[in-house]
Amino acid sequence: MSDLNTEIEMVEAKEAWSEYRLADGTKLRVRPVMIAVFRAGNELTADGEPVYNMKSTLVVDVRAAAVQ
To answer: Model-level pTM greater than 0.85?
Structure first.
């Protein structure tokens, strides 16, 4: 097995928001943003699928409940 990671080019992305409403009325929106994807050499899962490592970050939008 090789320890070398090979970066795989992303040719399409859809990064949708996940939305959460908290008990205090606050709305949270979270969206993952993929920075890079790497194929983990010749590593395979127990099912024979290739292993990928990802570099990502989260974008978070917090909207506090309206004060009355």
So the answer is: no
Place of tokens 């090789």: 2
Distance CA 19, CA 11 (A): 26
**Percent of the chain whose pLDDT exceeds 90:** 84
* In the predicted structure, residue 66 carries a pLDDT above the cut 90: no
Contact 18/32 with Cβ under 8 angstroms? no
For the CA atoms of 49, 13, 29, 35, the dihedral, rounded to the nearest 10 degrees, stands at 70
First to last CA, the chain: 62
Residues 35, 4: Cα–Cα separation, whole Å: 19
